[in-house]
Design brief:
This protein is an alpha+beta fold. Helices cover 28% and strands 24% of the residues. It has helices at 8-31, 38-51, 119-136, 145-158, 251-255; strands at 55-56, 68-72, 75-77, 92-101, 104-113, 162-163, 169-171, 178-182, 199-202, 205-207, 213-215, 222-224, 230-232, 235-240, 243-246. β14 and β15 (243-246) form a beta hairpin. Bound molecules: 2-amino-4-trifluoromethylsulfanyl-butyric acid and cobalt (II) ion. The site of 2-amino-4-trifluoromethylsulfanyl-butyric acid (MF3) has 12 residues, from β5.
Length: 270
């Protein structure tokens, strides 16, 4: 399928979808505590998504049974929420969610620590997030897609981390997954040339140990082969004439003050 260029109307719907998803992530992040089940996170998330008049993108997507993917420790992505899975101090938990607003999707993920976590887990989370920013430094109109992929992978490999090869980011819009695929590692092909109006979900998934992953018997949950922890950081971005904008930043992230370059310029009236 060709990579779609979104119209101004589509872009404004995606901004709204992104903004709502950012609020959902912010609230879910604040709600996490030891003793909570991953099922409760899904319930809270789905209720919140629906309270905004949106649909959860993931529910029933190829049969996925929940609204929020909750992946704990060695679980990389697509963990299925369960009443039996109880968060405890020291866990790291990746929350991945998507919303549909008036037919348009947004997709974002964050990894959180529960209470006190190890220094190495903390660094893994921070560097996985930084992988995203290293990548989108190349998300400029006129560059090729592989520059994003290479920057993400090279940054992660500096620390000896395992870059997940088996899962990719993706285009996003009227569908959760559109072309192009966005790998998180060096490519032999240049990939597409980036153009204003493209909307992409860039999502490094980085393992503390081996890059190898396996699928559990539930056909969804992806786990590191060596059972070491994994982190995930994802945003939906828009390519513009003036670099990338991030549509799914939380207000907590924006408040830190270093995200201005990724936000619409006030004067542009967008
Ligand atoms: N953010 C993920 C992705 O982009 C999650 C969706 S898979 C689902 O692939 F099936 F759980 F919806
Ligand atoms: Co995604």
């Amino acid at each position: 399928m060709p990579v779609t260029i979104k119209s101004p109307r589509e872009i404004s719907l995606m901004r709204k979808a992104g903004n709502i998803l950012a609020q959902v992530h912010e609230e879910l992040g604040k709600s996490l505590r030891p003793g909570m089940s991953t099922y409760e996170i899904d319930r809270l998330g789905e209720e919140m998504i629906r309270s905004f008049g949106c649909e959860p993108s993931f529910k029933n997507y190829h049969g996925y049974p929940a609204s929020i993917c909750v992946s704990v420790n060695e679980e990389v992505v697509h963990g299925i929420p369960s009443k039996k899975r109880i968060l405890k101090e020291g866990d790291i938990v990746s929350l991945d969610a998507g919303v549909i607003y008036k037919g348009y999707h947004s997709d974002a993920a964050r990894t959180h620590g529960i209470g006190e976590i190890t220094k190495e887990a903390e660094l893994l989370i921070a560097r996985t997030r930084q992988c995203f920013f290293e990548g989108i430094a190349y998300a400029e109109a006129g560059r090729h897609l592989h520059e994003i992929s290479r920057a993400i992978g090279d940054y992660a490999e500096r620390f000896g981390y395992g870059v997940v090869y088996d899962l990719c980011g993706h285009g996003i819009g009227a569908h959760l997954h559109e072309d192009p695929e966005i790998p998180n590692f060096r490519q032999f092909r240049r990939g597409i040339r980036l153009r204003p109006g493209m909307t992409l979900a860039v999502e490094p998934m980085i393992n503390l140990g081996t890059a190898d992953v396996v699928w559990m018997d539930d056909d969804w949950t992806v786990v590191t082969e060596d059972l070491q922890p994994s982190a995930h950081y994802e945003n939906t971005i828009l390519i513009t004439e003036n670099g990338p904008q991030i549509l799914t930043l939380t207000s907590q992230e924006i408040a830190k003050g270093d995200m201005d370059r990724y936000l619409p310029q006030k004067a542009s009236g967008q």
